[in-house]
Amino acid sequence: MCCRKKPVLISFSFFKLLRMLDLEGCWWLTNEDLKEICKMSLLRYLCLRRTNVSQLPKLVGVLKELVTLDVRETSIRELPDTITELANLKHLLGGRYKHYTRISRVKHFEPHEALELGSLSQLTKLCALNCGYGGEKWKPFAASLNMLCKSLRHLSIIHLCDRDVGLEIFLQLKSPPIFLEQLYVWGRLSVLPPWILSLSYLVELSLRENFFDGELLTQLGKLPSLVSLKLYHESFVGTKLCFEQNLFPRLKQLIVDNAPNLDELRFDGGAPNLERLTLAFEREPANGIFGIENLPRLKEVEFFGEVIVDSLVEGMIAEAKIHPNRPRVYR
C-alpha cells in the first residue's frame, strides 16, 4: 500500500480481524489514524515506514499480538512507556537509514529513547545510536541489554562521536547477549569487550572506528561460528593483519575497509574457507598482500573505494591467474 492521498472510504475500524497491515509510503496517514489502528488488537505486523506519523500513542500497548513494529523513516523519535506491554514483540525497527558504504546500511534510534526495553523479553533485533559525547546515555541501554541476554540475535551499537570513548560501559556487561548471531559496533573502545569472545553463535561481526590494534585477529579468530568479518574504516589501526594457522575456521567473507596504518595483509593458513575478499585502501600497504595461495576456496576479490591502487589490483590479478581456484578479481 503506497499513496499520498487517503482513500475516501477507508476506515480502520472495519478491519479489526486483520493480522498484517503494511502502510509504507502512505503519506496521508496521521496520528489520529494511528489511534484507530492501535485498536486492531489482533495485528501481528505493523509497518508505518515513510508515513507522516510523528507520535506513537499509548494505545499501542493494546496490540498484544504484535511481533513486528516498523517505524523507520518517520518523525517518531520517542516510544511510549506502554511499548513494554508488547510481550510478543520481536522486531522493533526505528530511525532512518544512514549509508556509510555502498554495501551496508543501518537503522537506528537513540538509546535514551529505548525506555525499559528489557521488558520486551521476545525482542530479537535491536539497534541504537548516540550522537552525544560521553557514556551517560548508554547506561539505561546497557542495563536493558543485561535483561535481553537470552532473546537478542541481532545487535547494533553506534556511537557517532569522533574518537570519544563513550562505549566503555559495554566492556563489562553483567549478562551479555550470549545467543547473538550478528553484532555491529561503531565507536572507539580501549580494548575489545571480553564478552564478545564468548559469543559461540556469532556468525557476522562488523566493526567501525574502534581504533583497535595489536592482537585483534588472534582474539577474534577463535570465534567458532564466525562466517563474516567486516573491518570498516579505522576499526583497526595497527600495521599488520595476519590470519594465522587454526584461526577463523568457518570464515567465508572478509572486508578490510581503509585500515589507515596497514602495511601488510597476510594469510598464513588461517581462514581456509574464505570465499570473498573485499578490500579498500587509502594507500598501498608498504609490504603488500601475501598468502592468497593459502586460501583454497577463494572465489572473488573486490577492490572498492574512492581511491583504488592500480598496482594492487594488477598484482592480485596476476596472483589469481596461478591460483588453483582462479578467483575473479574486480573493482
UniProtKB/TrEMBL annotation:
Signal peptide: 1-23
Keywords, in A-Z order: Repeat, Signal
The keyword Protease is assigned to this record: no
Gene3D superfamilies per the UniProt record, alphabetical: Ribonuclease Inhibitor
Pfam families: LRR_14
Superkingdom, taxonomy of origin: Eukaryota
Domain Disease resistance R13L4/SHOC-2-like LRR: 8-328
Matches recorded under PANTHER family: LEUCINE-RICH REPEAT-CONTAINING PROTEIN 57, OS11G0589401 PROTEIN
Stated name of the protein: Disease resistance R13L4/SHOC-2-like LRR domain-containing protein
Organism field: Digitaria exilis
Lineage summary: Eukaryota, Viridiplantae, Streptophyta, Embryophyta, Tracheophyta
